[in-house]
Amino acid sequence: MTVITDALCPFCGCLCDDLTIVVDDNKITDVKQACKLGTAKIMGHHRIKEPMMRKDKNSEFTEVSYEEAINEAARILSNSKRPLLYGWASAVCEVHKKGILLAEELGAIIDNTATVCHAPSTLAVHEKGLPTATLGQIKNRADVIVFWGSNPVHAHPRHMGRYSVFSKGLFTEKGRKGRKVIVVDVRKTETANMADEFVQVQQGSDYLVVSALRAILSGHADVVPDTVGGVPKEQLIKIVEVLKTAKFVGIFFGMGLTQSESRYKNIDNAISLTFELNSFTKCAITPMRGHYNVTGFGQVCSWETGFATAVDFARNAPYYNPGETAANDVLLRKETDAAMIIAGDAGAHFPADSVRHLAKIPVVQIDPYWNPTTEVSNVVIPVAICGVEVEGTAYRMDGVSMRMRKMIEPTHPPDTQILERITQRVRELRGE
Amino acid sequence: MTLDAILITGRTINQGATIENKTSLDYQEATAYCELNPKDIGILGISPGSCVSVITDHGDVVVKLKENIGNPDGLAFIPMGPWANAVVDPDTRGCGMPGFKGIPSRIEPTEKKVLSMKELIAGYK
Lengths: 432, 125
Description:
The structure holds 2 protein chains of 2 kinds.
Chain A: E1 2-7, E2 19-24, E3 27-32, H1 36-43, E4 52-53, E5 62-63, H2 66-79, E6 83-87, H3 93-106, E7 109-112, H4 119-128, H5 135-141, E8 144-148, H6 152-155, H7 159-162, E9 180-185, H8 190-193, E10 197-200, H9 206-217, E11 227-228, E12 231-232, H10 233-244, E13 248-253, H11 255-258, H12 264-277, E14 282-287, H13 294-305, E15 311-312, E16 319-320, H14 327-332, E17 338-342, H15 346-349, H16 352-358, E18 363-366, H17 372-375, E19 379-381, E20 392-395, E21 401-404, H18 415-429
Parallel strand pairs in A: 6-7, 6-17, 8-9, 8-13, 9-10, 13-14, 17-18, 18-19
Antiparallel strand pairs in A: 1-2, 2-3, 4-5, 4-19, 7-15, 11-12, 15-16, 20-21
Chain B: E1 3-10, H1 13-17, H2 25-31, E2 33-36, H3 38-44, E3 51-56, E4 59-67, E5 75-79, H4 82-85, E6 101-109, H5 117-122
Parallel strand pairs in B: 1-5, 2-4
Antiparallel strand pairs in B: 1-6, 3-4, 3-6
């Protein structure tokens, strides 16, 4: 029996690094300190055992060798005029690097799961920059915490305990007692139930509410109507007072802002509010990233191509224009004629029309698990699980890089090996 | 009776805990439902656990009805996943992001059953 201490959790963007993993005969028998999400992933589920292929998507899969599956994947991708390589967030940065190289070889579009998550936040950062802080700074300094359109009780269960609401640090030794918590949401979530102040906005009105807070902060409360987006003016004034008089405000935001009406403009406005609060006190804003290494893909893609995601290599040089080159844009326009889905599940998390198009074109899936993407795939290549069976680098939601540890020996090859072999085969097919 | 509601989708702890196990009944139970507050459920005239059709301009899907006292009137929530995505707005509004929240929808009782993940995706082929 082996006990691994200080292991990292490969589930959400909190990247908790205090787990204890008990391994017996190359099987994980216990996970300590992790939340329900992390425990479920690390303890594992039913896996795809062997590579599989089929010509007709309505027929059953046939098990094949890795070589056969890799050859067919390379054939599909090299025959494609407009390939899409999508997913990446459940893999380590070493995989992203190989993926971007393959995208360049193919002249493909490469996009990651942020496209249905925090990619609008990236657009807002282009407009305004990002006044942010590490989670360590929040833990040690923040006395006011705001969750806006984010429900960490469900999506990031240990965030409040480790980094924000309850954590005790250098200047926050009282923990929860020394902090005010504001939750802004369209419904009273479990996170809202724990707040000192719950601000209930009408769905799609976040932009208006942020604008009202900015008006009040700049001394123009007189122009603010009696209610804004369903929020009474008195409550908005009270919140501005709490924010202004705080020692350090930590704002965390989620899909409530990125996926609602106005999309990235909501975040653009929230970043402006953050900047303006810094005239009165210290204030930092941080996106609540979903997958444990979705932040990492943005980092690798930025340093390799100059852009964080939705990069189109069709012109032989990186081109980026979400709205035109993001995964759902090209699927909905039926432009994509072949796709490789890796470490992400477009079949489950894209709108029906995008999945309908995936069902019509050749699809290669690289993933440890059977999921809706498998249902629309022609070639399925099972791999080892990054962060459990494969070590590598991942980036926490605040941009801090950490080294994922290997807990057990893999039973399947790593994504990096599969991508290298596909890239090699693509080159051979093209006679290079 | 039918109910007009604004639909939002999003994460839940059970959706996350079953996300790597999407062929399981656990995943279906964690994601193929629609939450409304008790008042809105009263308008539909059926009890939680019954099946409802959620219909939008983009499609329709059958899910189980569930109660959530935290929802304001006229707000429906379906956990993110294949069932929710059968009815979300695919329009990326020029920034790559489909409309996963804020979709006008009509909710009505139905005799139809919830499709399994495989049956749902098979409908797209």
